Amino acid sequence: MLIVLTLACTSGGFPDVVIGKADSADSTWGFDTSTEGEDSQRPDDSADDSDPPEDTSVPEPSGEEVCYLGADRKGVTCLPLVDYDPAWGDDYEYPDPLSGSAQYRAPIRFLDLNAVDAATKLAPNFVLSEVAQDWKGRYAVFQPHAVERLQDIRDAIGGPLTINSGYRNISYNASVGGAGSSRHVYGDAADMASSLADLEELGELCADLGAGYIGYYSSHVHCDWRDDPLEPAFYGSAFAPAAAPKPEHRARLVPGPTWTAPAEGWDEGEPLREWRAYDAAGALIAEARGDTFTPPTLTAEVEVTVGRAVTLRQPAR
User: Fold this and answer.
1) Rounded to the nearest 10 degrees, what angle do helices 199-208 and 144-157 cross at?
2) pLDDT tens, position by position, 178-214
């Protein structure tokens, strides 16, 4: 009998447990309500004849600015913004707010990455180009409170924090498999890794810093602050924030000499898979991480946790 443990992420990023049972081991999926991923590779710069010409015009500044922590931590590193223009096309055609949540409304102003210095220090250890690159969208949103949280994490680990992905426009996000309402398009998400801290440590730091969602992948951790107030400079008048909707994950166990755990709902890359084998007395006899798992000969049950979100366990065959 397959036992499915579904872990639905709370606003702090760590799950409550709901236990269910199903009889069909090969076709039953476990579910949770959470997601996200990675896109550190620059796309091929070559363009075919069908590519639209690059927009080289310079929009007029809106008169509004967004201010970041800055190198001196004084919060007065301010950059000009431009108003959204429908002429930008599908790249900035935001979907309707997810579940009607005001936390998923479209920005009304953006940074023009062609008009600001990519080397601007948004925080002591982060420059603009680490969280927004023009090949992921000339016009970008990255919220000051997310920059501050990244600096907090960097301070806590005491060394480099690599940002695999920050802002993505709508088209680029879709091209890397991102969910239509990925927080990367709203500017409060970062996929990160560090040589000085493992995935668990980074995830715990994100939770301590109030992340609305934490996603564990094989190579990085996704953290976002979807429940924090949106930056008025980008989004207009502030709304009292409420818990933002979370996307859905699911996974299933496929037994065999080598076990697998196919998964759906993780936006980019493979979710972290943590395997455990138990003997007939219920004692843990093996642990491993990886996309697949070959249990030892005395294994009576196999368990996997996928992305720290879905846990599945069933008898070995």
Assistant:
1) 130
2) 888 899 999 999 999 999 999 999 999 999 999 999 9
**Burial class of residue 310 in the structure, from the number of CB atoms within 10 Å of its CB (0-12 exposed, 13-18 middle, 19+ buried):** buried
Q: How far apart are CA 252 and CA 4, in angstroms?
A: 9
Backbone angles phi, psi at 77, to 5 degrees: -85, 100
C-alpha to C-alpha distance for 315 and 292, rounded to whole angstroms: 16
Q: Which domain holds residue 131?
A: 61-235
Q: Identify the bridge partners of residue 79 per DSSP, sorted by sequence position.
A: 66
State how far the Cα of 202 lies from the Cα of 182, in Å rounded to an integer.
Answer: 20
Q: Report which residue type is found at 89.
A: G
- Domain identity same for 212 and 271: no
Same domain as 177, residue 90:
yes
Among candidate residues 230, 220, 204, 209, the one with its CA nearest the CA of residue 104 = 230
Domain membership of residue 95 (yes or no) is yes
- Helix (H/G/I), strand (E/B), else coil: 103: helix
- Does residue 97 carry a pLDDT above 50? yes
Please indicate, yes or no, if residue 7 is contained in any of the structural domains: yes
| Confidence check: pLDDT of 119 > 80 | yes
Kindly report the pTM of this predicted structure.
0.80
Taking 90 as the threshold, does the pLDDT of residue 61 lie above it?
A: no
pLDDT number for residue 174: 93
Task: Check whether residue 231 and residue 251 sit in a common domain.
Answer: no
Count of the separate structural domains present in the chain = 2
- Quote the DSSP letter at residue 29: -
Calculate Rg over the CA atoms of the chain: 21
Domain holding 179: CATH number?
A: 3.30.1380.10
Question: Could you tell me the pLDDT band of residue 62, with boundaries at 50, 70 and 90?
Answer: confident
Do residue 297 and residue 156 come from a single domain?
no
